[in-house]
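Co-fold these.
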Amino acid sequence: MRYPRHDFRVAIALLVAGRLGAGQEPDPTEARHRVARLRMVEEQIAARDVADTATLRAMRAVPRHRFVPADDRGIAYGDHPLPIGFGQTISQPYIVAYMTEVIGPRRGLKVLEVGTGSGYQAAVLAEIGCDVYTIEIFEALATSARERLRALGYFARVRHGDGHFGWPDAAPFDAILVTAAAGHVSPALVDQLRPGGRLVIPVGNVYGAQNLILVEKGSGGAVRTRVLLPVRFVPLLSGLR
Ligand code: SAH
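Predicted complex below.
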């Protein structure tokens, strides 16, 4: 019997379609976003001295365009923050990468983020394999970030709450990232840092000059503070919304 050539071709086509369906970006829009993302990492992040391999790999992998409002997807990879509703923003890509690198990210690192927002920073940490806890003061943002992270396959614990008080029942943490500007370094957050741990937090006048501060807790518990760079974040709020 002759081999049915036609069926053979159909089988190959199905096989290829199946492989693409298994996550290889058949969609040209997704492919364009991927190109923009790789360019973002080269031009905005690696070119500005973020060198940590795990951070760069995660920034190349996490689909930032899925964390911004649908109308803004075309500008998701620009060198700027973007609004995400409720007067809040997703941070500039460089700042997300910088803060990630500063904590020395690695698989299994237990990290608390204050200010979930879109969930993007949490996704970058989860992509690296960190054990992520994240708190958000707007219930609507906490809910949408939780759903978004789940839909994209990222595991992070998302809580609606006031991050000034940290997450005492899950403490201590190896690292704490605060992604909204505080008037001072919250003692509760320093308490919830494990000896040897790092806290990164923007501190300063919430509508003016702010600095990103690194707080390091020594193995004996002594605390050392260092100014990293001037930044501009939305303010850390009080009172659940
Ligand atoms: N990390 C976010 C961006 C953060 S913008 C991202 O990747 O998209 C700062 C976020 O902090 C906002 O969503 C804001 O609602 C939240 N926030 C402000 N004050 C807070 C507080 N006291 N506790 C928890 N979240 C707070």
